[in-house]
Design a protein that fits this description.
CATH topology of the largest domain: hpI Integrase, Chain A
Largest sheet: 3 strands, antiparallel
Oligomer: single chain
CATH class of the largest domain: Mainly Alpha
Number of helices: 14
Order of helices and strands: EEEHHHHHHHHEEEEEHHHHHH
Strand content: 5-15%
CATH superfamily of the largest domain: Intergrase catalytic core
Shape: elongated
Length: 377
């Protein structure tokens, strides 16, 4: 590999370095130029670095792409769930692009990213314009930017990620809400009066995420072993649903369930058969545990929107349906379940997630015990 240095014009302190990269697809030799300001030794050092990178196959051509254009490409090219894509798009377009989008990708520096993260801590929330962004939100913004820049290296847009050397913000811990034994009993009693009792019951007594609950088929239910096998989950965006495999190998799991709950599911399965007979002209059998009147899957957003209303009718605090998962975890800990066993049941990818989320909950803070479920049915 060859190259040379020349001052253009003489005495200006502007040095042009030129190097040979080989022959292009047309068979003609390919040369590249770069201008360096400073001393001749600065230009020679840069040329030597480029030639070394070419020699070891680590060279990346300078790019003219702006951060904003790269991030739009990144959002389109990623192989992720629709929910993750939508979430990351919001983080990029609402926070990263307005602050850093005007910079050329290969000119982005660590200090600019660190300053950006520091400014986020003073940024007002778009929800009400008064509260600052939460630690969780800032952490997710930084995580998305770090991933995007790491991918830029892998895709050979840049040689090195400018996020290296940047201090990640602390994630913070969201306040975990859970129901007491009495509150959960009231919620389940009111849920019986709705169309969503079964998914709410399963979520409350298994700790499954609601997406996992809604994706269940009868083949995943073992009445002999009193377990529910989790292999897939529903994702939704604007009422559009898709079903895919759980995100990690840890998400694929068999969760033990109280036999009393399984008895309810057996009766539910029989009632579905009766519904199928009544609506035989319209019914399409898919094996869903949570079908609507014609055999299709109940929309997960219907369950999510109904749950706070059920809480209100039950006379308890209005919560999202994920509160049932937190309630399950808190009751398991109160009943003496070991943290690593709970981690497996919840499908966490590491025990650290379980400890960070629930480790501060002590048994004396929570009403005992797991066996309350059979008293609520």
């Amino acid at each position: 590999m060859r190259g040379h240095v020349s001052e253009r014009p003489a005495g200006s302190g502007r040095w042009r370095i030129q190097w040979y990269e080989g022959r292009g697809s047309d068979g003609k030799p390919t040369y590249h130029n770069k201008t360096i300001r400073g001393e001749r030794r600065d230009a020679e050092a840069e040329l030597n670095r480029i030639l070394y990178d070419l020699h070891i196959g680590d060279y990346v051509q300078p790019t003219q792409i702006m951060v904003t254009d790269y991030l739009e490409q990144w959002l389109k090219r990623r192989q992720v769930s629709e929910k993750t894509r939508v979430n990351d798009a919001g983080l990029c377009r609402n926070h990263i692009i307005p602050a850093l989008g005007h910079i050329k990708l290969d000119k982005l520096r660590s200090v600019q990213i660190q300053d950006f993260i520091s400014r986020l801590q003073q940024t007002k929330s778009r929800i009400d314009g008064t509260a600052t962004l939460s630690k969780q939100t800032i952490w997710h913004i930084a995580k998305a930017l770090r991933k995007a820049l790491n991918d830029a290296v892998a895709w050979q847009y840049i040689r090195r990620s400018p996020f290296k050397g940047v201090e990640m913000p602390k994630r913070g811990r969201s306040e975990v809400e859970f129901f007491t034994k009495e509150e959960l009993a009231k919620v389940l009693a009111k849920a019986k009066e709705s169309d969503y009792y079964i998914p709410i019951l399963i979520a409350a007594t298994s700790g499954l995420r609601i997406g996992e609950v809604m994706a269940l088929t009868w083949s995943a239910i073992s009445f002999l072993g009193n377990t529910i096998r989790v292999t897939q989950a529903v994702q939704s965006h604007s009422w559009n649903m898709s079903i895919g495999d759980v995100k990690t190998e840890y998400g694929r799991r068999a969760v033990p369930v109280d036999p009393a709950v399984m008895d309810v599911l057996k009766a539910h399965k029989e009632s579905i058969k009766e519904t199928a007979k009544k609506n035989a002209d319209l019914w399409e059998e898919h094996g869903w545990v949570n079908p609507n009147a014609v055999g299709d899957l109940i929309n997960i957003e219907s369950v999510r929107k109904a749950f706070p209303k059920i809480c209100k009718r039950a006379g308890v605090k209005r919560c999202g349906i994920h509160t049932l998962r937190h309630t399950y975890a808190s009751m398991m800990l109160a009943d003496g379940t070991l943290i690593h066993v709970l981690s497996r049941r919840l499908g966490h990818s590491s025990i650290k997630i379980t400890v960070d989320t629930y480790g501060h909950i002590m048994p004396h803070d929570i009403d005992q015990s797991v066996n309350i479920f059979r008293d609520m049915l």
